[in-house]
Design brief:
The complex is a heterodimer of chains A (538) and B (393). By secondary structure, chain A is mostly helical. Chain A is built from 18 helices and no strands. In chain A, helix 7 packs antiparallel against helix 8. Chain B contains twelve helices and ten strands.
Amino acid sequence: MSAVLGHHEHAHDDHSHAPTGWRRWVFATNHKDIGTLYLLFAFSNLMIGGVLALCVRLELFQPGLQFFNPELFNQFTTMHGLIMVFGAIMPAFVGFANWMVPLQIGAADMAFARMNNFSFWLMIPAAVLLVGSFWMPGGAIAAGWTIYAPLSLQQGPSMDAGIFALHVLGASSIMGSINIIVTILNMRAPGMTLMKMPMFAWTWLITAYLLIAVMPVLAGVITMTLTDRHFGTSFFNPAGGGDPVMFQHIFWFFGHPEVYIMILPAFGIISHVVPAFARKRLFGYASMVYATSSIAILSFIVWAHHMFTSGMPVTGQLFFMYATMLIAVPTAVKIFNWIATMWEGSMTFETPMLFAVGFIFVFTMGGFTGLILAMAPIDIQLHDTYYVVAHFHYVLVAGSLYAMFAGFYYWSPKWTGFMYDETRGKIHFWWSLIAFNVTFFPMHFLGLAGMPRRYADYPMQFADFNALASVGGFAFGLAQVYFFFFIVLPMMMGKGEKAPQRPWDGAEGLEWEVPSPAPFHTFETPPKLNASATRIVG
Amino acid sequence: MKSIRNTPASRWSVLLAAACGMATSAHAVNDLPGGPAVNQLNLPPAASLIAQDLQWLHWFMLIICLVIFVAVFAVMFYSIWKHRKSVGHKSASFHESTTVEIIWTLVPFLIVIAMAIPATKSVVEMKDTTAADLTIKVTGMQWKWGYDYLAGEGAGIGFVSTIDAGHRELSNQGGPKAGQSVDDYLLKVDYPLVVPVHKKIRLITTANDVIHAFYIQSFGINQAAIPGFVRDAWFKSEKVGDFYGQCSQLCGKEHSFMPIHIKVLSEDDYTKWVAAEAKKAAAKADDPAKVWAMDDILARGEKVYAQNCVACHQTSGKGGGAIKAIDGAAVVLDADKTKEIMVLLNGQNNGAMPAWKTLSDTDIAAVVTYTKNHWSNQTGQLVQPADVLAMRK
């Protein structure tokens, strides 16, 4: 990110055609600049989504309505979900991909530099539409991030704004995905075969295909919602013979691959951090690639496990239950591979490794609750309760977000040219880990006791765990503010130790073959690689 | 295996409450039999065999998962402890082993199959809604439940079950005050669903407006109620008593406020209840041709308002936010009384104000009269059921 601000360090290889000032960002075509833009955008959304989550936790601190009316409360839960999924996690991973994919595969830049610019700048109006919908008549969308029909048909104009925003974000994602696929398939340095490619590039290649496959499905389903709302169609409106369950099928046909879109790149990051700090090659590289691919393929045939209570025939329930449970197998293989990578290593625990180990430990808990929820009969008891809320925050916060933190600490020395403060990084890790578990662990109990999710008020028996979760939530939010002001900002402003070219002695890959901070242009001529395609020779 | 039972949560909850020192210490709240217990840690005590199976299944899964979790992470933390650079461990160079990889792919696969077998049995049992003794249609509405007894003893009974207006108001006022004990807070309804014990009850779910879900853990039921569609579920209670649940599918503003209360009676008591209901129904039937006096219809209107309107329009009639005020509203003050009747019958603003067609002519006439003669609205207009009947198409 100080490739951003500290341009003096690499002025010597900045050619005169590189724009400066605001033009550098608005007209950005450099993958590193666009990556930075994506990451900053995602972090802003993380903060907005976080504030909404804290509003939810504030209202739920005690039984009774103290701060917000239930309608506004529903808007908070809905917008928290939409903003975190589409505004924070997805763009953040695209930011990582922009920065790291060309560096990892020895490419000069992304394949379509101007489309790259466009796919970033499309996100701004979309985010403005989403967040701005709070000030529309009737307030923001209050139908849940899943915008189930026919509740979505009752919403005010913000629903239309949301649909438009999702269309734009979808277009942006598709462009980003095409860019990543073309870059990876065509621009690898000579000698880097697919099976020598770094895991992060692999996971993103698979993710990009998932995105291209399912974003049009989302676009379709929200367009049908739009025409139901305004043009008299009845795709989902039962009053005209439409089928609200069909909405759920189409939505989750998008929605389930979507959750893997949000976790596969995380697997990629962890597959770099663990070997680097164990000083040992990744165990079972090939099986990692196959496991990732099988998760991606399975993700298309499990969608109806989100709908066990919607009512489907016995055979349907059994099929989706079995298929979902199968996903545990490749996921388990990944966990085993990471642990086998650590086994007999020579480990140190700098912040990236702490977040990676934290990821493996806490994400696995989310994986197990996922397995429990996959059992259709148990799901019936827990569907739409806080147990589900706990489950998906264990995989999305302790999963995706922790992996991004691991990736940030691991790669940011390369981005900015400065080391983060190790003590502060450790404080950030332990603070986040404890606060996260204080927030979300009690939610398992709330769900088992039957507290439905998206409730603005609840029976008094649930009061203690809710209070505990609220305290944890605020602590977790504060930890991320600390992260920005005490870790990210100093690095961007060029404070701290200068980062060497190879800050991690166990790290492998082409990104460590270029100086820190990475020059504005890298690999302008294709590098010659060694046999394992991890170093430049000659 | 069935001996695994729910540990009484209270013991733990004392510890937990002491540890967190939080909300409930200020609120004296007790466990609610058939509903949530204070700081409950697991599924509630089962009241049906299915729910009991589910409890067993959950323990079965939890134990397997915990054993695997502990085993896997014991290995990881052992490695973290022993294979550190700081203790001088040098890294090995192995990075694959086909044998090991095949084993750890196959073993989870077999475990997953072992898990699927008992789950399959439960799925099949839960889906078998045949041979029911009593069939009840459950209709989700924004935001209340309608119950219609379709077949079996009590067929023909039908009523709507709404959250206790006092509880809803208490919620708006910030919830129960310190020291105030409301064990069934937000779970109390005006008319509970009444069923006999040891009888197979089939529920047919549907909805009037958006999707709701009928969720009662004690019986292991969580079934979406979908407008335009019917779905079914069943339960057979093994216990007499009161059981509580809530709507589990986001259905709009008052989603948190449409609880479910099932009262399970002994067979004799149930028969008595059916007889009493039949008598009440006969007495209650309103003649739409009846001409009402102002005072009588105002009293009726006040009740209808409290049951249906107050959640949005408030006791003050002022509404709030997107909800329009009734007090001083042009359509209410209008000399043409059909205008307000049309709003009630058809709804307004894309269903933000829902259509209230399901109310009887008398109820609509009463609430229209009430709103036209309450707060600052002193129009003196009196609407009769016949006026409403004339407006229905």
